[in-house]
Amino acid sequence: MPRHLPKPAAAPLICLWPQRLLFIGPLGEVAPHRHAATVLLVALQGEVRVRLSAERRWRQAQTALVPAGCMHALDLRGGITAVYYNDPHRPYHPAMSARDCAEPSFDPPPLASLGDALRRFHQAPDAPSLLEPCLNTALGRYPTLPTLDPRVAGTIGLMQADLGENLPLSALAEAAALSPSRLQHLFQDQTGVPLRRFRIWIRFRHALERIAAGASLTTAAFDAGFASSTHFSHAFKAMFGVSPASVLAGARAPRILSLD
Length: 260
Fold this sequence. Notes:
The protein is α+β, with helices and mostly antiparallel strands and 260 residues long.
């Protein structure tokens, strides 16, 4: 009688949309960190365990929505977890707007059915259209993207034009015809995140795009404007709570897809 072997686990996966980023894979203990974007955590095995910096106890849930800038630690026990981000300056889902999502939430009812859709997508990531309706039902979708103040949009354009140039705040403020303090205030008001943390976020996105195109971790870090691989590693752990090598390199390096 033939023996039915268990279906092999799908490899870790990173998907890059123009406004969004999704990681699906095994995660264990994640050190305290704060994101530059609101993050949705969905347990595909086990549960999500979150400890907020202001609390001593762990919160246990199947889904958790953690706002941008909220310091938190995770203990995911090695289970497969989906980690989903919305770029702060290009809000795609209203529920994940860095400007408007102010408080963490655990197991909100609209997200209950999202796990099955993410499991199917993990097994068949070449069919993203099957996931989109579930994400939009659970998180909403802006019919048109909210517009930014032209001075903030111009600042973002300058930072993205040459990530390696690292223009100082004074130069960005001069280009926007604002004082440095006024630019920082306006930038956070418009995007929901500080300018410095935002710049690191877009550098990480660029590094992932370079890795998806075949660049090594070190080359991608330099191309994204990080001074060294050590600088990249420290900044990555501060924002994501894990080292880049632990999720981007080695035998279990993720497949990276760029999606429209």
